[in-house]
């Protein structure tokens, strides 16, 4: 399946991918409102996590593993493997906020929702035409959405 | 100006931040290499220090809400035609530092740009123009010494066959476009851009020039599209290097700084630069002003032939000089010394670092130099012995066409290639902190140039210029760049004096 692959050689640490991520996952779909209002009021958060050490930086998000530890650990069935696309999908309605997935994910790709008893996880922008927003926003082609 | 030198507020730029658009996302802070943007903890918002802005526009380009605009600072000194603000600011700067004024990129001074005073011809009625989309158009260019005459052997009587060329031809560099990427050394620009230039040149079927910093082993695979340079510092020069490329260039001078050498500061010499230049990590790379083994045309002759021997006469040898007052006579000497190519770099040529006084006051414009050299070599009957490359201040495809009509065989482009990958001519290359990741070896900054993107942009630029050159040639009724070479009848001047037109060898428009 197509996944988002970060390239630490060319990630410039601008965090524009995070801004794209929250815009796409916001109600308003407007960067300014999403960042200045929804982020603070509704706990809107980017699914990406930035790692930076010295000159190296990289934007990480859910790897949509073939055999995901989070799905195995999920007690409510909120995390599932989509049999068609292969993506690891999250149903916020089913989630009970037990954080088992957080503990199980070896990549730290799942985050707690800042205000709700829920998680924040990459959904590969499944409703967005043209694929993941972070990939489209990256100014240096350091995120690639492809089969490997 | 609290705690600051008294001239601190005479800065060049002003950062305008639209408060309705700025979301305090800090992208500008992360992008600015000069720390002009910062997070104000007390006010909990992004602020900026105008005095630190160099006008590179990186923040403006990456701001996700378009909240930033970089403008010239409007502070105005009392108007004075003689003491213009640039002189005042320079004096304030030097009174503080006691140092030489450094500058980067080509000279911004207001000397005539003759390209703008030259106009091209087009066919009307009496001779047909050619549509390059429908008919073949030849941009292929061969650089190297051409024979005085060619001899053929007729096919043996009674047997089938074609006439056979018996003249032995000198080695040539074959180019699909009359354009090359000029010498920008590995060190002055970073490895990612060398990879990009090498890939773009290979894809296009043209050449790029290594500059004086040697060639990294991993780029030997692009050798067919590489011209290796030998400069006064002899950095990274060895037998394998000389045989790695399609041509060898001896760099005598550079248009931006004729008569002086180069200085790559030790901070820029990282592991990779060190192994390529064959000097220790962190040591200054100093190129002397002259080659210490060249003090005459005879000495140059020796070096040319030493390099030809070292490369077994397989590749042409070029000699690059800055355009200076006696450029025509010097070029004649260079051709007689055995050079296959003479590259002439005009005074608007770029640089990573040069003393501002040298850059802005030494040399002559490339247009005059090309015309003078072409004419001199023709007059002496040796024009065929060497190709001429025009360099320095080639801004668009029309400049390339005009340079070729004035007598050049091909053009080197450096600044234009860097502009293609984002350079905004802020001219602060010498700080080593290029926010566009070009003139820097800083690991964090240099990765702003992804070779995949950069190679594509450079290749796109040359292809675009290629199309335009074909259109212009077609309009003039020519179907080959060869027919334009030195064809000054295709040029007319506007607003030039008699001596300027005499040197350029063109008539005034209307004649």
SSE layout and pairings?
The complex is a heterodimer of chains A (148) and B (511).
Chain A: E1 2-6, H1 16-24, H2 31-41, E2 49-53, E3 56-60, H3 69-73, E4 79-81, E5 88-90, H4 100-104, E6 111-112, E7 119-120, H5 133-137, E8 143-147
Antiparallel strand pairs in A: 1-8, 2-3, 4-5, 6-7
Helix pairs in contact in A: 1-2
Chain B: E1 13-17, H1 27-31, E2 37-40, E3 45-48, H2 58-62, E4 68-72, H3 85-97, E5 102-103, E6 118-120, E7 141-143, E8 152-153, E9 164-165, E10 173-175, E11 179-181, H4 191-204, E12 208-209, E13 226-230, H5 239-242, E14 247-251, E15 262-264, H6 271-277, E16 285-287, H7 297-310, E17 317-322, H8 327-336, E18 341-345, E19 354-355, H9 356-361, H10 366-379, E20 387-391, H11 397-406, E21 410-413, H12 415-420, H13 443-446, H14 451-475, E22 491-493, H15 498-504, E23 507-508
Parallel strand pairs in B: 11-21, 12-13, 13-14, 14-17, 17-18, 18-20, 20-21, 22-23
Antiparallel strand pairs in B: 1-4, 2-3, 5-19, 6-22, 7-10, 8-9, 15-16
Helix pairs in contact in B: 4-14, 8-10, 11-14
What would you say about this model in short?
The complex is a heterodimer of chains A (148) and B (511). Chain A is an alpha+beta fold and 148 residues long.
Summarize the structure in words.
The complex is a heterodimer of chains A (148) and B (511). Chain A has five helices and eight strands. Chain A has 148 residues and is α+β, with helices and mostly antiparallel strands. In chain A, strands 1-8 form a two-stranded antiparallel ribbon. A two-stranded antiparallel sheet of chain A has the order 2-3. A two-stranded antiparallel ribbon of chain A has the order 4-5. In chain A, helix 1 (16-24) packs across helix 2. The mean pLDDT of chain A is 95. Chain B is α/β, with parallel strands linked by helices and 511 residues long. Chain B has 15 helices and 23 strands. In chain B, the strands form eight sheets. Chain B has an eight-stranded parallel β-sheet with strand order 11-21-20-18-17-14-13-12. Chain B is globular and about 100 Å long. In chain B, 49% of the residues are buried. At the A-B interface, helix 2 of A face helix 1 of B.
């Amino acid at each position: 399946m197509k996944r988002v692959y970060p390239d630490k050689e060319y990630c410039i640490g601008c965090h524009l991918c995070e801004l794209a991520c929250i815009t796409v996952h916001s109600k308003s779909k407007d960067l300014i409102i999403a960042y200045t209002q929804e982020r603070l009021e509704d706990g809107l958060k980017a699914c990406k996590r930035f790692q930076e050490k010295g000159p190296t930086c990289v934007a990480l998000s859910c790897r949509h593993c073939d055999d995901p530890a989070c799905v195995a650990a999920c007690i409510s069935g909120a995390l599932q493997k989509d049999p068609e696309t292969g993506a690891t999908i999250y149903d916020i309605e089913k989630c009970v906020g037990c954080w088992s997935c957080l503990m199980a994910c070896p990549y730290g790709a799942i985050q707690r929702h800042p205000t709700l008893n829920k998680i924040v996880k990459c959904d590969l922008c499944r409703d967005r035409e043209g694929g993941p927003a972070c990939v489209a926003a990256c100014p240096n082609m350091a995120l690639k959405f492809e089969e490997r | 100006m609290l705690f600051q030198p008294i001239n601190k507020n005479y800065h060049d730029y002003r950062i305008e931040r639209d408060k309705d658009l700025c979301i305090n996302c800090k992208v500008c802070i992360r992008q600015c290499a000069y720390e002009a943007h910062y997070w104000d903890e007390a006010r909990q918002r992004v602020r900026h220090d105008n005095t630190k802005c160099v006008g590179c526009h990186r923040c403006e380009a990456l701001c996700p809400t378009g909240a930033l605009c970089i403008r010239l600072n409007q502070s105005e000194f009392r108007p004075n035609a003689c003491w213009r603000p640039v002189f005042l600011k320079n004096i304030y700067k030097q009174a503080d530092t006691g140092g030489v004024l450094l500058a980067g990129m080509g000279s911004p001074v207001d000397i005539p740009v003759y390209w703008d005073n030259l106009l091209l011809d087009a066919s009307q009625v009496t001779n047909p123009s050619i549509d390059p989309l429908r008919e073949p158009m030849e941009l292929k260019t061969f650089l190297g010494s051409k024979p005085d005459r060619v001899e053929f052997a007729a096919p043996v009587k009674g047997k089938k066959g074609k006439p056979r060329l018996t003249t032995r031809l000198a080695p040539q560099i074959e180019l699909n476009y009359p354009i090359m990427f000029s010498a920008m050394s590995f060190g002055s620009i970073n490895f990612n851009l060398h990879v990009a230039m090498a890939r773009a040149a290979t894809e296009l079927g043209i050449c790029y020039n290594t500059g004086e910093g040697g060639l990294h082993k991993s780029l030997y695979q692009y050798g067919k599209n590489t011209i290796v340079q030998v400069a006064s510092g002899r950095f990274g020069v060895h037998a394998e290097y000389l045989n790695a490329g399609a041509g060898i260039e001896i760099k005598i001078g550079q248009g931006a700084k004729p008569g002086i050498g180069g200085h790559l500061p030790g901070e820029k010499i990282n592991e990779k630069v060190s192994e390529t230049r064959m000097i220790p990590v962190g040591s200054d790379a100093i190129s002397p002003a002259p080659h210490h083994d060249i003090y005459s045309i005879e000495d140059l002759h020796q070096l040319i032939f030493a390099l030809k021997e070292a490369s077994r006469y397989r590749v042409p040898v070029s000699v690059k000089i800055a355009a200076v007052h006696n450029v025509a006579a010097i070029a004649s000497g260079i051709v007689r010394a055995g050079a296959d190519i003479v590259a002439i770099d005009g005074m608007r040529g770029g640089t990573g670092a040069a003393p501002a006084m040298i850059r802005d006051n030494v040399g002559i414009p490339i247009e005059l130099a090309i015309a003078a050299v072409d004419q001199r070599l023709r007059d002496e009957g040796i024009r065929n012995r060497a190709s001429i490359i025009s360099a320095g201040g080639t801004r668009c495809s029309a400049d390339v066409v005009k340079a070729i009509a004035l007598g050049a065989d091909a053009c080197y482009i450096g600044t234009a290639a860097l502009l293609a990958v984002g350079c905004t001519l802020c001219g602060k290359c010498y700080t080593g902190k290029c926010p566009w990741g070009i003139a820097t070896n800083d690991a964090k900054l240099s990765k702003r140039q992804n070779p995949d993107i950069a190679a594509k942009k450079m290749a796109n630029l040359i292809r675009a210029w290629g199309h335009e050159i074909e259109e212009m040639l077609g309009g003039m009724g020519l179907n080959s760049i060869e027919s334009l070479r030195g064809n000054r009848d295709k040029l007319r001047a506007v607003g030039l004096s008699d001596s300027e037109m005499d040197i350029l060898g063109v008539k005034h428009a209307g004649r």
